[in-house]
Amino acid sequence: MNIITLRRNTPRGVIWLIDMLIVLGSIFLAYLLRFNFDIPPSESRPFAILIPWMLAVRGISFLISRTHAGLIRYTSTADGQRVLITLLAGSMVFGLTNLITWFTIQWFMIPTTIILLEFLITTMGMIFFRMSVKVAWLEFQNPERQRVDVIIYGAGEEGINAKHVMDRDAATKYKVMAFIDSDPAKVHKKLERIDILPPSRLESLLKDRTIAQLILAIHPVDPAYKQELVDLCLKYNTKVLAVPPAIQWVNGQLSFAQIRQVNIEDLLERDVIELDTDDIREYLNDKVVMITGAAGSIGSEIVRQVSKFGPARMILIDYAETPLHSLGLECAASIRGVAIDFILGNVCNVLRMRSLFEQYKPGIVFHAAAYKHVPVQEAHPGEAVFTNVHGTRVMADLSMEFGVNKFIMISTDKAVNPTSVMGASKRIAEIYCQAMNKLNKTHFITTRFGNVLGSNGSVIPLFRKQIEKGGPVTVTHPEVTRFFMTIPEACRLVLEAGALGKGGEIFIFDMGKPVRILDLAKRMIQLSGLEAGKDIQIEYTGMRPGEKLYEELLNLQENTMPTHHPLIMIARVREQDPKQVSADVESLIELTTRPDDIKVVRKMKQIVPEYKSRNSVYEALDK
């Protein structure tokens, strides 16, 4: 059998014929073993009837069960089971044949010992044949000398499946040289002839051998420990890949394409947040929930999470047509039992929004619609105010008018001591919602957090694109830092804050430690298997208009109060007079109708005294 034969699909008839030859050989070998290689003439006389009958039964059963139809080089456990069941069924027919011949002519056509021996020998022969072809094909495809070593971390089901995937994928040329597992019951044993070693041996393996990849095949993994593993692997130029949880496998089967490279989001994640699901369900279940900015990165995740708590209906509003269409396709495929309406519309359009409130009468509103890019809004302050302030006012006023129970606004850490138009516009929106809370039964709740990983406005997708293009990776300043949180984590806390809120609070989230953007860029380059300064250059572009060097979550005049959730605090903020706030916001929005950015920004600074522009043409107004 040469490589050309192996690469070509062997005709099914040839496989069937080989199986039949195995059966024929098994019959003769069974007789030889039964009679110590000296078959008496009396036992060989029935061969003329017995052998054709056994071959006919086996041949027909093979055709019915199609044991010859699969690709032999991809033989799996399921194929072995099919062969075993088919042979067992045939042996049962042989046993039935004996019963018939005994009751009719008092003669066992096939000796019982022969039935058992033939079954065992044929089973071993057919499976050995298939495994031999598979091993030979794998060796031709991936010669041992051409393979690179990999280590699988986890000797459980996911680890075994990862090895099987790598064995059968012709595009991979990897050799699993060790499993790593912390389970004492597995350590120092073998799994498919491969050693299972303790985690303490990992560094010596990486140091002494050239390990191309470490595949994480355990769930869950403590985030801190995952970082340690990645740091250790990067030290020895070993890439880290991860097997997704079994629940995410396509049709219950793992494919090589699903084993993905560990990315920066995995390393910045924290322990899973435990929610008070009963309280969340109480305020969302059977309610009409309206979500603005629903097709955005934050809004769409709120949609996914809210849908799990049994709302009566979800009204999803967004001004971006294509993302809204994509959200519709996703919801149709993944959300069941919840009525959903997708609304293309602008939150600044009072008449359009009023008609929606009249039609649907929402009980809960999540307001995530906003402009968010700091440099863009710095160049267009009127648009920032119109969307972030006027849009919020429209939704807040309609919520009060139509008796919405809770209005949850998504804010940002850039609203604290703002240095940009964007941050100041969000702070004014916060002030308006807090002030309105005193005038109506609607409970206005604000949530404030920093950057979310992978959002449309995050630096991470930008860095990823720059690395894919070969660089350079652009960083504004070597000391700039930001808080980061995953999108699901942030949205879980938003839902929890909505349950906690009684009205008027600004909830701030524990964002963990701030991350230096330069370190983030270097880490992402390393995770791509490249070296910063050698393979990918890092360039400093200078601080952008309105950008801060360090983000804050609290104003200097604010402090916090704890809640029952360790990651959520309530900011103490100064009281605002509702009438004055309404008048200020009205005059600010009126200024957006005129092409005078200076007047707009001056009014914003009047409403938010702590707003001090940075790297901006509006710094002159602070003097």
> What is the β-strand count?
22
CATH topology label of the largest domain: Rossmann fold
Portion in beta strands: 5-15%
Number of helices: 22
The first-level CATH class name of the largest domain:
Alpha Beta
Rg: 34 Å
The helical percent reads 40-55%
Which regions are unreliable across 5 or more consecutive residues at pLDDT < 50? 1-7
Kindly report how far apart the N and C termini lie: 87 Å
Description of the structure:
The termini are far apart. It is built from 22 helices and 22 strands. The longest helix is centred in the first third of the chain and has 30 residues, at 112-141. With 623 residues, the protein is an alpha/beta fold. α2 (12-34) crosses α4 (47-65). β12 (406-410), α17 (421-436) and β13 form a beta-alpha-beta unit. It is elongated, with a radius of gyration of 34 Å. It has a nine-stranded mixed β-sheet with strand order 10-9-8-11-12-13-18-22-21, with helices on both faces. It folds into three domains: 3-141, no CATH class; 144-262, Rossmann fold; 277-619, 3-Layer(aba) Sandwich (Rossmann fold). Helices cover 47% and strands 15% of the residues.
